[in-house]
Each structure stands twice: as C-alpha cells, then as structure tokens.
C-alpha cells in the first residue's frame, strides 16, 4: 500500500513546460497572483511579455489607459499611487514600466498593472529624458539632459550636460557634455526608443554655422551619441515615432497632409518614403494630425490635435483610423477621453517591478 501511495504521488508531477504553457495564457492580473507560489513561477511571470498594445493618454494631472481589445474601447483613469504636488511634465514607457517626470518630485518609475512605483530623484531642473532597459546588466536606466550656460565659452549658447540613472545602484552619474553644435533639443520631452537606440529631434549648427534640423541618437548598448544630419530633402517640420519596430520620421505639410519615412538598416541608412497620408479636412488652421501607432489590417491610428495657441479648447482631441489602401479616414471613438491631452504613448502590460 505504501509503495502504491508513493507511486501515485510521483504521477501527480506536472512537467514545467505544461505549467508554463498554462501560465502564459492567463490574464496579467491572474498571473500576478501566482508569482508567490514558487521562484520559478515568479521568474516566469517577471520575464513574460504580453502583446496587448494599449494607449496611454497623459495630461498634467491625469493618466488614462485605453485597451484596444476590450469590449468597449474607453479611456480609463489610472489610480496614481504616488503624490504629485504640482504637475506631471512627461512620460515614457519600456517593458510595462512608465517613467514619469514630475515638476517638483523628479522622476517616478511605475508599473500601473501591479501598482508598484519607485521615486528616483527630488529635483527636476531638466525637461528632456530617455528611458530604457539594459539587457546586458538587467538594469533599467534613465538619461536626462541638464541645460546650462558655459560662462567660459566663446559662444553664449545653452549647452547640455548628460546624466544617467541606474536602477540597480539607485544613483546618477554624469556621462558627458554635448558639443556646442547641438543647439537645441526640441519638442518631445522623451526620446523615441527603437531597437535599443533613443532618438530626439534637435537643431544643429553645421560647418557653415547654419541652424539645421537633425536627429540626435543614443546607442544604449555602448552609451554613445551620434548626430544624424542627413535627412530627407527639404524636410523641415517633422516628428519622430515608431512604426512596426522601425524609426519613423513624419513630415508635416500644409493642408493637413503628411509623409512617413523610415531609415534603412545597414551601411547606406537612406531615408525611404513608405507612406503618404492624404489631406485631412481640418476644422481650422489650428488643428493637425499626429500618427500614433499601427493597428490591425495595417490601419494607422491618428489623433487630431489642437495647437496650444488656440486655447481654450472647446472639445476633446479626436481619433481616426487611416486606411492606406483606400486612402480614407474613419472616426475611431474612444469614450471618456480627457479634454486637455498633452501626449500619448503606446504601452504593453508586464509584471516587472520598478
């Protein structure tokens, strides 16, 4: 009888591959509850990646999440667990973590799915930053630009000092001072992260001492900067983004039309125009379209924004789906979106702790 009992116990063992196959099918909140069962389950949960692309809407005091796979597509206010004494300035995402820059408390790294957060610094004398995951050291990092005027310089221009924060050491380290030719880091607060490289739009002073549009890149693997001066011909007004895992340059034209470019990988690294979005009937000259992300069936989600100079706003920003084949726009209704939207980013759930 005793031998039969031991044999039955041995037969109760379920192979790990079957268990993990079951765990990966669970929704994020259910998987989070099972992290405490054993170390192998905890390790699996922390490394598991979901592919449910969500949209994060951001304002000075509100963060909303939009789940495209929900029965009703609506903007849900996230319960912010940390105190923001004044306002939030910028937001970036990486592997399910949000990196939020606040005006007085500095940076906060937060996983809204599990509710955990970590304050990084208590100063915010900067406004441009980047956020990424260093695979080689299993470490999340933040890069910030500190603007200053060099009294000893022959040119009275603002310079940028670069500092990098390490989550593991919980400390900042000065990296370098950027060359004076990098005159201004413009527009977006956070760097666009594509294939372990961060990108910002800048104004660059070339050899003829002319101010030209350019792109500043930062290779997060070897932590080195580079300046991309070669842009598509006659491109002056543009934004940077990510399209299907590639760096995307969005060129704005008058009358609500814009072109989308991507950069070749390899030696040539030429810019290739891969899409031209047809003119959109704007409600006023103060309205413009901003591409956000690619959706199912290769449609592109775009947001109709309103220039700040046209405040006060009379309504919420509106969203549309652009069909590249039919070259048509159709309204994409998201319920309960905030009125004073600052920015939007894409995000995927994870169980990573900040």
TrEMBL record:
It comes from the Eukaryota. PROSITE patterns: FBOX. It holds the Pfam family F-box. InterPro entries: F-box-assoc_dom_typ1 (IPR006527), F-box-assoc_interact_dom (IPR017451), F-box-like_dom_sf (IPR036047), F-box_dom (IPR001810), SCF_F-box_component (IPR050796). SMART domains: FBOX. Residues 8-55 form the F-box domain. Gene3D superfamilies: 1.20.1280.50. SUPFAM superfamilies: F-box domain. PANTHER family: BNACNNG10540D PROTEIN, F-BOX PROTEIN CPR30-LIKE. This is F-box domain-containing protein. The lineage of its organism: Eukaryota, Viridiplantae, Streptophyta, Embryophyta, Tracheophyta.
């Amino acid at each position: 009888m005793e031998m039969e009992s031991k044999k039955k116990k041995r037969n109760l063992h379920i192979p790990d591959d079957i268990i993990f196959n079951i765990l990966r099918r669970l929704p994020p909140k259910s998987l989070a509850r099972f992290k405490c069962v054993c170390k192998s389950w905890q390790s699996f949960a922390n490394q598991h990646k979901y592919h449910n692309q969500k949209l994060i809407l951001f304002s000075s005091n509100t963060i909303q999440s939009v789940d495209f796979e929900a029965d009703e597509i609506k903007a849900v206010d996230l319960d912010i667990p940390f105190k923001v004494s004044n306002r939030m300035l910028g937001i970036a995402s990486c592997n399910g973590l949000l990196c939020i820059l606040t005006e007085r408390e500095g940076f906060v790294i937060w996983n809204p799915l599990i509710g955990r957060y970590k304050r990084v610094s208590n100063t915010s004398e900067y406004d441009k930053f980047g956020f990424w995951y260093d695979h080689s050291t299993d470490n999340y990092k933040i890069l910030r630009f500190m603007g200053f005027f060099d009294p000893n310089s022959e040119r009275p221009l603002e310079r940028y000092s670069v500092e990098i924060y390490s989550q593991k050491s919980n400390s900042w380290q000065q990296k370098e001072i950027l060359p004076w030719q990098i005159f201004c880091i413009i527009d977006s607060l956070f760097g666009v992260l594509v294939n372990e490289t961060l990108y910002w739009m800048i104004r660059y002073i070339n050899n003829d001492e002319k101010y030209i549009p350019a792109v500043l890149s930062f290779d997060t693997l070897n932590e080195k900067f580079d300046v991309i001066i070669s842009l598509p011909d006659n491109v002056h007004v543009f934004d940077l983004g990510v399209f299907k895992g590639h760096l995307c340059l969005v060129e704005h034209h008058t009358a609500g039309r814009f072109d989308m470019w991507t950069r070749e990988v390899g030696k040539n690294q030429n810019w290739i125009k891969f899409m031209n979005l047809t003119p959109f009937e704007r409600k006023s000259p103060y309205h413009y379209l901003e591409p956000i992300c690619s959706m199912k069936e290769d449609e592109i989600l775009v947001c109709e924004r309103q220039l700040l100079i046209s405040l006060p706003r009379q309504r919420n920003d509106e969203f549309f789906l652009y069909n590249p084949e039919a070259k048509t726009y159709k309204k994409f209704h998201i319920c309960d979106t905030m009125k004073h939207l600052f920015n939007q980013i894409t995000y995927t759930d994870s169980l990573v702790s900040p």
